[in-house]
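Pasting as-is:
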Amino acid sequence: METIVLNLKDQNLYSKHIELAAQALKGGELVVFPTETVYGLGAHRDNAKAVERIYKVKKRVEEKQLTLMIADPDEAKKYVDHFSNTAKRLMKLFWPGALAIIFPLKDGSDISIRLPDNTVARDLIRATKVPVVTTSANISGYPPSTDAQQVLMDFRGKIHMILDGGSTRFRSPSTVIRLKDETFEIIRQGIISETMIRSCLENNFVKV
């Protein structure tokens, strides 16, 4: 397989490239795209073969769940049946942004959701019009990719397409937290610290 790299710097081709990537995702292909933190490796959530390939090319253990990426806050309501007060405050304070939230569901399972603060990522999710699950674009155990060249080193010939948006803004992963009632647990420490989260919750500060 030849990996296609689409440069997003040419504004005349931007919309076309986003649409090509959206069609690829809908068709079951793996697509890498930039976020504000690191590059993400995405697949159509409801395409079992595509999701299976994410785990295979990344060499990711099956126990680690993928994150559903959304483009607008209200989309979370499609997937989560109840939002605690803490959940609502975290979403208001940190979305869009570098915080993935694992919400508990009534059936005992859970779901990880993130609303990125990156135009490319949100444009792609909107254009795809199907649920897109993601993980960082790197081989498990290795540093996440913060530009398209790093992605190519790991995945050339293994994925269909890369949207090249240049270097990511923060060059550091997002933080992942798990909610339980009105409390939270840090699952992965990223650019947003636990201290920052607690401070914002206690004081209702708005993120910078």
